[in-house]
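Handoff note, outgoing to incoming analyst
You'll be picking up this chain. Sequence as last confirmed:
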Amino acid sequence: MSMTISTPELATGSLTRVRVGAVDGGRVRVETDVTGPATAPALRPMLLASDARSARISLVPDGAMLLAGDQVTVEVEVGEGASLTLVEPTGTVAYDMDGGHASWTVAITLAANAGLVWAGEPFVVSAGADVTRDTRVTLAPTARLALRETLVLGRHGERPGRVATTWSAHQDDGCPLLVESLDLDASSLAPGLLGPHRVLASVTALGRDVPPDACPDGRLDLERGGTLWRHLAGETHEVPAGPWECATTG
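Most recent structure output, in case you need it:
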């Protein structure tokens, strides 16, 4: 039996900030902050581990998300020479919004020789959901990024809602590395489009030296450097682990 959660359209925006910087002679500096109404669902950063140059942080959901009116924003900044690993303990479900709308925005800034590994969990767009996802990355030429994203169109046995995504990565001098947009809904599950594949998995590696013959299936090498892997599947467990392993070990 499916469950529908819907609320009136409300401004319930939250902002999660994560900043990591290397400190000479000491443990890496970690700054986190969550702002927004007390009733707004948010991702709360929890420090799992750190050393002189790196930190590992879990983004823990605080409250049900996503519902109509939710505006979740995450800003991540990694300073020169520092490294950050972000993990998500669970996936995200965008529920039936009864005509409402929600947004999910991520802004990433990576300084020279900085590194970010973000192991994103599945993002499920339930029937009746209407979500905008916006990811913006700015990085120095010597920075490194590995980002995993998995969009699931509908829970098991149901038609999906709508998700409009934009994704852009630029070097800090404004040079574009990857810019794209996708608008997906139930009509996308048609022959000639996604067909029976309701799972769209992506792995993006920027600034990482991935051998040209590594993980060839679904691989797209970007003109200005970097690699994007895409895989279509009927279920999340059918997504291969190889591209993520290539992106994080290269």
